[in-house]
Amino acid sequence: MSDERTIEARIYERLSKVIDPELGRSVTDLGMIAAIDATPVAGETNTYDVRVRVELTVEGCPLSQTITNQINGAVASYPDATLIPSIEVGSMSQDKLTQLVAGLKAERKQNPFNKPGIRTRIFAIASGKGGVGKSSVTANLAATFAALGYDTAAIDADIYGFSLPRLFGVQSQPTNLNGMLMPVTAWGVKLISIGMFAGADRAILWRGPRLQRSLEQFLSDVWWGEPDVLLLDLAPGTGDMAISVAQALPNAELVVVTTPQPSASDIAVRSGLVALQVPMKVRGVVENMSYYEHKGEKLRIFGEGGGARVSEQLTHSLGYEVPLLAQLPLEPELRETGEAGRPAVLTKEGALRSDGIGETFKNLAESLMRLPQ
């Protein structure tokens, strides 16, 4: 084999380590590398121009620069010669794209989170009533998992009161890849929500005739890959969506969010007792808005003890320990930063904050992952 052919073969092998960020597969497996041509540079020893032709799945793909940078790096860092990369970016033909999507769909055929041996931890975040900060807890917990290095996904299963797009600053729609949707990634979390589909008419079409079908679509019509963690932001209460989640995801684990006052905690117990009717296990309780810290003093604005009451009552009713996992402070910044489109546990650069709220959510995430499945 000539030096040029050897280099081309080895570059192809190196590119098998370059992963498409949306599909989670290597660019070689996906057939995105259409050609590699190495040409000696005249007058230079062991130096080659290397042209790589890349075919993206979607024209104008927003992550094309990420892919191009990785390919450039794989070529430029070749150890046995000096390579000068030149990347030509195009898009797949319709026939090639159709074949690729058909192959990906054939691998799944159904809800990917229901397969035997699936390693994804699935946490459904529930509350008995609205207004307790359940969606804020979901968003910040998802951002924490991602910042800790977990491949993280989140589904806004609150079909009528969706809020995850706003909390993550998402204004774009999922990419439609020949009938298969790519989740929108924000702050390291792969997201899908009915709120990403503009217009009430489109939302009704997406929901379909039955609420359960909307969840099935979120699970099976979206390419998730195989995330480490999947969070579901459930609608408040014990309605149809909680039962739909249990039917579609029998391996889901329930986390109940409450606030300290008795009116909230009594209703929160009911959402946890859904576990008596469905196979989900209640993993623990999160008490939100537990206190407001003012000049070193913890002010219990909404009373206290709600999280402990929910924990004790669920432990007694379900017959196994349901711990109080975290008590989150009332922090105006959580709301203000979240409404501005960045989960408050993250810095502007996207790193996990090292102060109190960052540590609290880090401990919560690690506690959940330590629990045996």
Automatic annotation (TrEMBL):
Superkingdom in the source lineage: Bacteria
Residues of the MIP18 family-like domain: 8-80
Entry keywords, A to Z: ATP-binding, Hydrolase, Iron, Iron-sulfur, Metal-binding, Nucleotide-binding
Gene Ontology terms for molecular function: 4 iron, 4 sulfur cluster binding; ATP binding; ATP hydrolysis activity; ATP-dependent FeS chaperone activity; metal ion binding
One Pfam family from the record: ParA
Chain positions recorded as ATP binding sites: G128, K129, G130, G131, V132, G133, K134, S135
InterPro entries the UniProt entry points to: FSCA_dom_sf, MIP18-like, Mrp/NBP35_ATP-bd, NUBPL-like, P-loop_NTPase, YlxH/NBP35
SUPFAM superfamilies found in the cross-reference section: Fe-S cluster assembly (FSCA) domain-like (SSF117916), P-loop containing nucleoside triphosphate hydrolases (SSF52540)
GO terms under biological process: iron-sulfur cluster assembly
Membership in a protein family: Belongs to the Mrp/NBP35 ATP-binding proteins family.
Function: Binds and transfers iron-sulfur (Fe-S) clusters to target apoproteins. Can hydrolyze ATP.
Known partners and oligomeric status: Homodimer.
Protein name (Swiss-Prot/TrEMBL): Iron-sulfur cluster carrier protein
Species name: Bifidobacterium adolescentis (strain ATCC 15703 / DSM 20083 / NCTC 11814 / E194a)
Upper taxonomic lineage: Bacteria, Bacillati, Actinomycetota, Actinomycetes, Bifidobacteriales
